[in-house]
Amino acid sequence: MTAVHREQVSGCTACFVLSSSFRLRPFTETVILITQEREELHMKKIVLASASPRRRELLSQVGITFEVKPASGEELITSAEPAKVVEELSRQKAMFTAYALEEERNRELRDVVVIGADTVVSYEGKILGKPADETAAIEMLAMLQGNTHQVYTGVTLLIREEERWEAHTFHECTDVSFYPATEEEIKEYVNSKDPMDKAGSYGIQGAWGAYVKGIRGDYNNVVGLPVARLIYETKKLGMNLRG
Fold first, then answer.
1. Is 36's pLDDT higher than 60?
2. What are the residue numbers of the active site?
3. Checking CA distances to 25, which of 37, 43, 101, 137 falls within 20 to 30 Å?
4. DSSP label at 125?
5. What is the mean pLDDT of residues 83-89?
6. Alpha-carbon gap, residue 193 to 188, rounded angstroms
7. Statement: residue 34 has pLDDT above 60
8. Does the pLDDT at position 20 exceed 80?
9. Phi, psi of 184 (to 5 degrees)
């Protein structure tokens, strides 16, 4: 006789068909298999395709062990929409590093996960990247002060599966509002050199934080990497980055 067993799992009803010849695994054997599976998940080798000290700090803060290996290449943008731009650039940055890993001699690629990320600031539909010089930084901050803008970060996970890379890409958006700032205050901040390597010409975690009126969304996304969303997305893929 064939028996049907139903079990509630994560809000869904899972249905298992048990034939007369089906043998349930002993409990101890099941525990061993689950433990082995978890150990395999914990052995993922994380490679960060970014030289950003802020992204390194964010990953370390949540207990992720990783290797830093940024790689360069020609970046191509096919869209003007901020969300699509950061997703495209994060994929390209991750692929540049993946290709570099493939070129390394004696590099074991099994269980490697490459994380690529890109962040831009957008104001009234205009994308603001890193400033080319101090004049550009002053112009950006003059535009943003007293207003609300959006910060987009795209993230791509390249997961090594057998002989190929499987890509998983997403983006996060956070609204940021600034209090008004005078021309003198903006110039003083730009003279500190802090904004020169940051999208939108400011770092929310630095001196410019004094002008932040409020945010709606993930604070870490503004810093450069939405780590909570990253962990959530990897959990959906069956991975535990903090193992």
1. no
2. 118
3. 43
4. T
5. 96
6. 9
7. no
8. no
9. -65, -40
Identity of the residue numbered 129: G
Q: For residues 11 and 2, what is the distance between their CA atoms, to the nearest angstrom?
A: 25
Question: What pLDDT is stored for residue 39 in this prediction?
Answer: 45
State the pLDDT at residue 43.
53
Q: What is the 3-state secondary structure (H, E, C) of the chain?
A: CCEEEEEEECCEEEEEEECCCCCCCCHHHHHHHHHHHHHHHHCCEEEECCCCHHHHHHHHHCCCCCEECCCCCCCCCCCCCHHHHHHHHHHHHHHHHHHHHHHCCCCCCCCEEEEEEEEEEEECCEEECCCCCHHHHHHHHHHHCCCEEEEEEEEEEEEEECCEEEEEEEEEEEEEEECCCCHHHHHHHHHCCHHHHCHHHCCCCCHHHHHEEEEECCHHHHHCCCHHHHHHHHHHCCCCCCC
Is 154 in contact with 174 (CB distance < 8 Å)? no
Q: Is the pLDDT of residue 32 over 80?
A: no
Higher model confidence: residue 104 or residue 147? 147
